[in-house]
Design goal:
The structure holds two protein chains of two kinds. In chain A, 41% of the residues lie in helices and 24% in strands. By secondary structure, chain A is an alpha/beta fold. Chain A has a domain at 2-75 and 151-251: 3-Layer(aba) Sandwich (Rossmann fold), CATH 3.40.50.300. Chain A has a six-stranded mixed beta sheet with strand order 6-7-8-3-9-10, sandwiched between helices. In chain A, strands 2-1-4-5 form a four-stranded antiparallel beta sheet, with helices on one face. Chain A is globular. By secondary structure, chain B is mainly α. Chain B folds into two domains: 2-301, no CATH class; 321-543, no CATH class. Helices cover 74% and strands 1% of the residues of chain B. The chains are: A alpha/beta, B mainly alpha.
């Protein structure tokens, strides 16, 4: 289980994440939602150990992750929000490098990389430079790199970004399958329909603070709202969206 | 003067000025600099080194000139210096073209960013050419600011009149600028027509090969071409083909023609300079125009994804998986990233320059040479440039934003990462340099002394690699350290004041040791002890080290300073 206890992160005195507490359990897909700038990606980066917390504690299977960060990283798979990759490498070279860095046995990693490239329809382009890959192709490389070592904790920050319909459907099923096999999956997205379909629980962040942490069913009944979109709008959207759209159109004299 | 230039610049179209400023910063790849680099300061330091070199050269020329008592010897000396200056200027411009490879042609980024905007292709073309011309002009000016006055003055004195000085001054600058423009335009012509004639994806692959080939050619010609600067050697029919095929001699003849000191039978050589210059300028203009008219469209139409090479993708084993990952990442970054290739080429220029010089001396000698400082010193220098060069290129980040993957996959101790970096330094710098030295030492005797020197050289390579690893708790190509943060002038002069005398001293000590077994044993033991000591120190420090990854700074707003 992944547990965040009173986690905060401040940048130059401004709280990006403020006293956040939640748990992500094995066998569940936990949705992590919030508007732009709410602190989702910052939280993800703290969970991966990329940035340090200003306060609080992150525990995985009951132990603070800082106690043995390397052992923790060996069990972690992470897909970042932006598909930043070493673009001078080919897809196959990048994945092989990640496997080598993770100290996976050569034969096993080759089999996994080859199989996943084939399943993600990237096998024919595996020797092409990543600089020529589309956003969707880069996203697939990130997914393969995050999953090839069979991690126990999977952090997905906007994993559907750039993927085509078929790949999105595969990924949706894959996330559910991985959770069903006992993985801890923390999934951040703006696609509320997808979140509603695959997540058992959602955590909603607004201005760095936790505003909801419950199952979607319970949130629906508690707030007496039919969809996650309506729940999210009520909790985390301050603007009148229709009026804003009108103002923009007026501004450009459309 | 400053306000006049500003007034003139302000009359240029705004889009041209904006683009020119952007391209000016991209002529030399400034993305290679540290994120904390002071760009203006860095370029200023570089210019300072060139100006200082020119002033030192002017002083040495003056001292050399004064050491000859009669006018004929002085003229011969001046001619030798003039040819050397033209050849050196051509080498500098040649290396500049390697550094700014493709900078004058439209790349994909330009096409994708500028095509949707109302900017005419000819504005982009003029802005790019202007940016290159500004940098090239500054390089010519700084490198000749001292010798460009002193040499014409000394040659003018021999004319015996003030008019003679002006004539020599004009001859000097016309021939230097002409030689620079000729070389720059020739490279542009070759690049442009290659881009036009070949399919784009083939061109992109060939361009990197051409870049390295040009780099090797400029160095080889500079170091291997013989020097004929007296009228007898110039008129010798045996040297005809060398003169006819060496542009530096064409422009040397041009200088003499304008200076009024060219023998009539060599006027064809000056004619070649004029003709070569005209052809190069026309070729460059035509290829650039055609490139902007044709390849900008072609660049958009080309598919994004270039299929990778089919067939064999075998790579040699580099040891453990971490060593393999770091070694492969290093070699791929070095060979595929333009900025890293170019930066490493800068250091390799010194290595190959020294090697070619040594080779020239070997070829000139009739039989095997005796082991002397002439072998020891250059091989020490080659090893030093190769190892320190690679170490400084390791400090150029390939993509700071992609470093997250190395951080999230760090499942082994920093000690192992540092060991892997050591392996890459030894494999890609010390070993090739040692092998090159071994090849060059083949023509030296006795073989026992050569073998002993190679053993010392190997130990030196290890010592230098360990020195490079002190406090270097980083994965290669993930953090910026140099250039941009270092003081170029300090490094440059420290090298001349400290490293060169040190290398000479070590070479002399070694030469003495090579003749006495016990002295050699002591020297080898000292080198081995230093190497082992540094190795132990680095291993000890690495145990408590934390790998450092440089982060991009928080976003800042950069203004284009367009208002007012």
């Amino acid at each position: 289980m992944l547990e965040l206890r009173n986690v905060s992160k401040r940048f130059s005195g401004i709280a990006a994440v403020d006293d956040v507490n939640f748990c992500a359990r094995p066998g569940e897909v936990t949705g992590y939602l919030g508007p732009n700038g709410s602190g989702k990606s910052t939280t993800m980066k703290m969970i991966t150990g990329l940035i340090e917390m200003s306060a609080g504690q992150i525990l995985f299977e009951g132990k603070p992750i800082q106690d043995d960060l390397m052992a923790y990283k060996a069990r972690l798979g992470y897909v970042p929000e932006e598909p930043y990759l070493y673009t001078h490498l080919s897809g196959a070279e990048y994945l092989t490098m990640v496997a080598q860095l993770r100290n996976l046995p050569a034969r096993q990693s080759m089999e996994r990389i080859d199989g996943m490239l084939r399943l993600f329809s990237l096998r024919d382009d595996r020797h092409a430079s990543i600089s020529g890959y589309s956003k969707g192709m880069r996203q697939k490389i990130l997914l393969i790199a995050a999953l090839m070592h069979n991690p126990q904790l999977i952090l997905l920050d906007e994993p559907f970004s750039g993927l085509d319909v078929a790949s999105s459907l595969v990924l949706r099923s894959l996330i559910q399958e991985l959770a069903a096999r006992g993985k801890v999956v923390l999934f951040s997205s703006h696609e509320l329909d997808t979140v509603e379909r695959i997540c058992s629980r959602v955590v909603i962040l607004h201005h760095g603070k936790l505003v909801a942490d419950d199952s979607i069913e319970r949130l629906r009944s508690l707030m007496e709202l039919p969809t996650l979109e309506r729940i999210f709008s009520q909790l985390a959207v301050e603007q009148d969206t229709e009026s804003m759209a009108k103002q923009i159109a007026d501004l450009i004299h459309a | 003067m400053h306000s006049l230039i500003e007034k003139l610049i302000s009359r240029l179209p705004l889009d041209f000025r904006i683009l020119c400023r952007q391209f000016l910063l991209r002529v030399i790849d400034l993305e290679a600099l540290s994120i904390q680099a002071d760009v203006t300061g860095f370029l200023g330091q570089f210019a300072g080194v060139l100006i200082m070199l020119s002033l030192v050269h002017a002083f040495v020329t003056y001292a050399g000139y004064m050491s000859f008592p009669d006018a004929a010897d002085r003229l011969a000396f001046c001619m030798h210096v003039e040819h050397y200056l033209i050849a050196t200027m051509m080498l500098v411009v040649g290396l500049f073209t390697v550094l700014s490879w493709d900078a004058t042609f439209p790349d994909r980024r330009d096409v994708m960013v500028l095509s949707p905007l109302p900017v005419a292709p000819h504005t982009i073309l003029f802005a790019k050419v202007s940016a290159s011309a500004v940098v090239l002009g500054l390089a010519i000016l700084t490198l000749n600011c001292g010798s460009g006055i002193v040499v014409p003055f000394l040659v003018g004195v021999l004319h015996g009149s003030m008019w003679g000085f002006y004539q020599s001054l004009a001859a000097y600058w016309i021939s230097i600028v002409g030689a620079s423009v000729f070389l720059y335009c020739s490279v542009l012509t070759i690049q442009g027509f290659t881009a036009l004639l070949l399919p784009r994806r083939v061109f992109l692959r060939l361009s990197a090969v051409l870049q390295l080939a040009a780099f090797g050619l400029f160095l080889a010609v500079y170091f291997l071409q013989p020097s004929f600067t007296n009228p007898v050697a110039l008129a010798d029919p045996q040297n005809h083909w060398i003169l006819a095929s060496s542009p530096s001699y064409w422009f040397f003849a041009l200088f003499n023609q304008l200076n009024g000191t060219l023998p009539a039978e060599l006027s064809w050589l000056a004619g070649r300079a004029w003709m070569g210059l005209a052809i190069a300028i026309c070729g460059a203009a035509a290829s650039l125009l055609l490139c902007y008219m044709r390849t900008m469209k072609k660049t958009i139409e080309e598919p994004d994804l270039v299929p990778g090479a089919r067939g064999l993708h075998w790579m040699p084993s580099f040891g453990g998986s971490l060593q393999a990952a770091i070694a492969l990442f290093s070699i791929r970054s070095l060979t595929r990233s333009r900025q890293h290739r170019v930066a490493f080429s800068f250091y390799l220029a010194f290595v190959f320059g020294i090697a070619l010089n040594l080779l020239r001396d070997e070829l000139a000698s009739p039989g095997p040479s005796q082991v002397s400082v002439d072998l020891l010193m250059p091989t020490f220098m080659m090893m030093t440039f190769a190892v320190f060069g690679l170490r400084s290129v390791f400090a150029l980040p390939v993509s700071l934003t992609a470093n997250w993957v190395l951080r999230t996959t760090q499942v082994r101790s920093p000690e192992q990462y540092i060991a892997a970096t050591r392996g890459s330094l030894l494999l890609f710098a010390a070993l090739p340099s040692w092998l090159l030295s071994a090849g060059l030492a083949y023509g030296f005797r006795p073989a026992g002394q050569v073998a002993a020197h190679l053993a010392i050289l190997g130990l030196l390579g290890w010592i230098l690699s360990e020195l490079c690893l002190i406090e270097f708790y980083k994965v290669p190509f993930t953090c910026s350290y140099l250039p941009g943060k270092s003081n170029i002038q300090l490094v440059f002069w420290a090298f001349f004041i400290v490293c060169l005398p040190l290398a000479v001293w070590i070479a002399n000590v070694e030469l003495d040791a090579l003749h006495h077994l016990w002295k050699f044993a002591c020297l080898a033991a000292v080198f081995a002890a230093i190497a082992l000591g540094l190795f132990g120190y680095n291993r000890f420090r690495a145990r408590s080290a934390v790998l450092y990854f440089e982060e991009l700074p928080e976003e800042v707003i950069t203004t284009l300073k367009l208002s007012a």
